[in-house]
Amino acid sequence: MITRRGATEWNNVHLTHHARLDDLISVDNSPDSGGPARRGFEVLRETAREVESIIADARRWGRPMRGLGSGWALTDIAVTEGWLLDTKLLNGCFDVSSRYFCRSYPEELRPLLVITQCGTAMGELNVFLEVARHPGARRALKTAGIGAGQTVAGAVSGNTHGAAIKFGSTPEFVAGIQLVVGTGRSLWIERQSRPVLNRDFADMLGARVVRDDDVFNSALVSFGAFGVITALAIETDPIYHLKFDPVREVSQFALKTRLGKPIDDDHFEFIFNPYDSAEAMVAAARRVPWKADHPAPAPLWIIRSKSGFAPGDRTAVGFLKTPFLSARAKAKLQFKLYRENAILDDVRGSPGQLFTATITYFEGYTESAYGVSLDDAAKTLDVSSEVVRELKLPAISQVRLVKPTQATLGFTRHEPATAVFEFGLVNNQKFAEFEKRLRASLRKAGVEYTFHWSKNSCLDEPTVCEMYGKKRIDTWLKAREWVFEGDKELMRLFDNDHVRRAGLGVR
């Protein structure tokens, strides 16, 4: 069912971007006009039809539009001055009958594949996989970010990375994409090199089958520019536990030595204080068998702290802005509080039990994130620390290691693994200055880098070209033009300031 709310003010969850919308439109799984309830994959077919009609209206009225998940992106990547399509109530999850698989798809993997609608929150997907099944058939995501509030399509489209050094980021668990672009029929996209579901499945969706590695890998991380992703096929694993060792506090010298050796863990992250070479800590975990009787750990991230602070409070930012403490003192306190409250320490649980964060950043707070090769991680620690100290920023950094992605414009593309550096910052003019100086310092140090699409202050065309190279960008642009059948007027509906600024809009 389609609900139009009309012109309205809109803010992203973290209050870093604001827009005046011509219309905020929601789509859910209810039938129109009190008709019969939709069942099974009929939901996917009817959703595609409704989204198609909205795109046709947007084209008729000349209104740009974007699909909207949970609005977690810190950048303006999902922002438009036209129509936002709220997808959060498109949250159905489905198992797949064996008759819909291609013969070449391994039989032992078939019970592990699920179809999820685009608006399903990661937390909702975890419940479907881990809880709502017979204990012997429970499953788990192969990787996840720390957040459970993002929609699955939003997490994939923005390359949410997690810390699965042996597997990769969220795009890597996607095996099929239902994409609605406004050409009259949805697309079901898979890799030519790995077909999964057969034509009977696509016919049931009313979709055209597309098997092309370049189109698939480009559509994976396309941040809304390829149309509206309405459903995804996701490959999961039999349910497992991650066992986190006690957090190890180490010097940064010892940490750099550790990064130069093979890493056998399944999850690996570290935190460091740019102002103190003695302060760093490592959180690592291994996959271990799932035990039904193992008690669920208490959620690490909660909506309201013991002190009563909640997202939207200005208390945290007020502390970071206070002139009575130096940036060094503030960073030291942040490091201490992160150690006490925000890191998985000597705990065991399933992905759905461990990665539960649904909190937002405090109002006035933002984050910068960028990826480099693991081989450059030690050098990048020093380079970024120097920039933080030069600008006197009260900030610490969390770094997560992840296997490279196959997505054409995935920022976690670096071999042999990507180290994703994240800095929490006050959302002021120093945010952009930090990234400007950091880019210059990384270039000077000879470090290749890629900025997180959903966490940067301003990516322009020259920077994007520098990060990905002409070949990758041309492949992505060619795939985008192909799915829209060369219709540039239709493509422009899904351009926005972010896409145009990055040099990826219609030319």
What would your notes on this structure say?
The protein is 30% helix and 22% strand. With 507 residues, it is an alpha+beta fold. The strands form five sheets. Strands 15, 16, 17, 18, 19, 20, 21, 22 and 23 form a nine-stranded antiparallel beta sheet that branches. A six-stranded mixed beta sheet has the order 7-8-13-10-11-12, sandwiched between helices. A four-stranded mixed beta sheet has the order 1-4-6-5, covered by helices on one side. Strand 2 and strand 3 form a beta hairpin. Residues 302-313 have low confidence and may be disordered.
Main sheet: strands, sense, barrel: 9 strands, antiparallel
Estimate the global geometry from the Cα principal axes: globular
Q: Report the structural category.
A: alpha+beta
Rg over alpha carbons: 22 Å
- The fraction of residues in strands falls at 15-25%
Distance between the termini: 35 Å
Stretches where pLDDT falls below 50 for ≥5 residues?
A: 302-313
The portion of residues assigned to helices is: 25-40%
Q: How many DSSP helices?
A: 14
Mean pLDDT: 91
Strand tally is: 23
